[in-house]
Structure formats: structure tokens, C-alpha cells
Amino acid sequence: MNTKTLMLSTALLLGFSSYSLAYTINSSATNVGGLDTFVAGSDKSTWSALGYGNGNSPASETLWVNSVLDPDVTYESKSDPAGGISVDAVDFNSNLGAFSLAGNPSYFLVKDGKPNTAGFTHWLFQNTASLDWGVVDFGAIFGSNWSASDFTISHVTEFSGGGVPVPEPGTVALMLTGIAGLVAARRRNKIQA
Question: Containing domain of residue 35, as a range?
């Protein structure tokens, strides 16, 4: 393997690793990472049946989240602004939305602010891509013909713990490429000697 081939391979790997499914906000080109993973949803009747009340308090939300997850998580913070949470459009895709998170939670719970919503009122997500942004596919939640008027985020509750893996595919690929290059160079030097 010659030096040019090794350098070209490394450049290609670096180019692909920096691209790794990063979304940007339409209005500001802010990188918000990738799509967060949907874990579970719950409706109003579930909260009542479990004795968790209406699901607005951090204590009741933590109880429900810990009934879903193993290992348990810890309440971190709750964003509850008067006008709801602002959701920014992402990558000119009408189904994707991003919102800033107060901390760097492992998981976050989104609560629908529309009181008459049929179906789920709470959605739990694993925060995997960019820990300071929540990126959600609202089309997957509401169906392909949803509209922003169907949904208002009442609040977002953040939880820490639960052991979230941090994806680092670019770093691992770069390290393995470097090791492979060193092994190839060492073999080439042994053969020539």
C-alpha cells in the first residue's frame, strides 16, 4: 500500500465520518445532530390507571419513565415555558423538528400541550445524537399528514442515567485505519529488509 492510497483512504473515511447523519435547523444552519430514538409513549388513561395523576409533575413522570426503562433514570430538569417549547424545522423536512434542551440528558420526555389529543400525550426519547438538542420525527408520531397545529409541546422533562452509549463511529474508523496503515508499513519494511 503506497502513501497516496493510504492518504486517500484516510481522507475518504474522515469525510464520511463528519457527515454521519447530522441535521441542521432551516433558519440558522445550526447543527443539531441526528434523530433521537423513540422509546415509548403513553396516553392519559395509562397515567390514571397507574395512579400517576395527570402526568404533569416531575415525580409522576419519573415514576412512569422508570417503569419503562431499566436501569432507572434520575429527574434532571423540566422546561416549561409559558408559551410552550419552540420547535425549529429541520433540513426542510416537514416531519422533523428540533428543540434545545436545558442540559445534556440521557432521555427526555415530551408532553403534548393539547388537552383533547387522542392517543399518546407523553413520548419518551433516548437522546443519542447531540445531547443538547432534541430531534424528533413528528411524522412518525402523528402520521404522514400531521400538521404543527395538531401539536404543542407543553413541556420537556429531562432525565440522566440509564447508560446511554455515545456513538463514535468516525473516531473508531480513523483509529482502525491508522492501525492498519502501521501494520501494512511494518510488513512492507520486513519484506524489503
Answer: 23-166
